[in-house]
Amino acid sequence: MERTRVVITGLGIVSPIGNNVPAFEAGLAAGVSGVAPITRFDASAISCRIAGEVKGFNPEDYFEKRDVARTDRVQQLALAAAQEALLDSRLDLQAEDRERIAVYVTSGIGGGESLESEVLQAAVRGPSHLSPFLIPKMLVDSIPGTIAQRFKLYGGTSSVVSACASGTQMLGEALEAIRRGDADVIVTGASDAAVTMTGIGAFANMRALSTRNDDPGHASRPFDKERDGFVMGEGAGILILEQLDHALARGARIYGEILSQAVTSDAYHMTSPDPEAKQIVRAMRTAIERAGLSPLDIDYVNAHGTSTPANDRTESFALQTLLGGRAHLVPVSSTKSMTGHLLGAAGAVETVACMLTIKNRLIYPTINYATFDPECPLDYVPNVARSSDVQYILKSSFGFGGHNVCIVLGRYAG
């Protein structure tokens, strides 16, 4: 049975290397690092004192002053990216049936900054001083609710949380919802803003974060032998997914097509990937098969590529297993080398990068790659962007809890 085709018609971004798509696009092409010393709180007592912070973001550009105090940073970043994506899509919301436009946006952490602030205050002043806005500020599903309320979109909201795979899984869920006929258009993606004392401190105590504090611009170094952990980032990536016939009927500009999703579970360990990578490979292979393709068709892999020893080794092994003798010929890169790891928002932000790869025929690099690791022997597009007429992209994301999520993206061919 022929499946409904779903295309991407709008992009929005807030990131450590740019607070809109043109700035993000330029930063990716130039191989810019957005990692720097933490400024949002005093990190002097933590082993990791660097992060990919969003810079120069003013929530009052998007919210009334009263509403800034009633929303968490994670909602503010998401709304900014959603506004850009909707404008970029050129959807005429006044002419559209807004009961057919849904909002599927998620987060790995949610409103952690608000929760931390309120708990610290309550410890001093007592629980009677907790804000009545704390619950909606911290809930993940308040993020799509905020977007739906602002733009009066009545097609339903959803937030699937699967740790650092959340954003990618949300895109896949939006794809399937359009194919089911639940909506014609879905505003989808993810946001995270966990550069807080709790967020950085807890990951640091797990020894998951890089401690290259004296050289922050080179700290996120996926697949490099000297990698010592990931660097946390913050931001939001939002995409407009649209049923193809709906997009064509309004003459929409199409960035690319989302072809498939596959989800598996390692069922191995809460925080470590299964070194045998069987379920990662199954997710990759299933996504490719559901797209009607074979591994021979994949032109580029946008990797999870966190810069941790275990993830990069396991992901490289999975790709070697999937691609076989062709593995060394397929370019693989991690834009986390530039942005840091945006947790649940990572996959959505990286899918925006994939659409820009298709648009510009340019694969964005893995920066800070200097030392070959024999356990990571693939072509990681080191340090410099590469021209390539990419047709099909495999995008992978993995998360604590053993989540494995893969989607396949393609150039729109009419």
Walk me through this protein's architecture.
Helix 3 (73-89) packs across helix 6, helix 7 (166-180) packs across helix 13 (346-360) and helix 10 packs across helix 11. The chain is built from 13 helices and 14 strands. The longest helix is centred in the first third of the chain and has 17 residues, at 73-89. 33% of the residues lie in helices and 18% in strands. The mean pLDDT is 97. The chain is an alpha/beta fold. It folds into two domains: 6-249, Thiolase/Chalcone synthase (Peroxisomal Thiolase, Chain A, domain 1, 3-Layer(aba) Sandwich), CATH 3.40.47; 259-410, Thiolase/Chalcone synthase (Peroxisomal Thiolase, Chain A, domain 1, 3-Layer(aba) Sandwich), CATH 3.40.47.10.
Topology readout:
Blueprint: E1 6-14, H1 21-30, E2 36-37, E3 50-51, H2 65-68, H3 73-89, E4 101-106, H4 112-125, H5 134-138, H6 142-151, E5 157-158, H7 166-180, E6 185-192, H8 197-205, E7 235-243, H9 244-249, E8 256-265, H10 278-290, E9 300-302, H11 309-323, E10 332-333, H12 336-339, H13 346-360, E11 362-363, E12 386-387, E13 392-399, E14 403-410
Parallel strand pairs: 4-5, 4-6, 9-10, 9-13
Antiparallel strand pairs: 1-7, 1-8, 2-3, 6-7, 8-14, 11-12, 13-14
Helix pairs in contact: 3-6, 7-13, 10-11
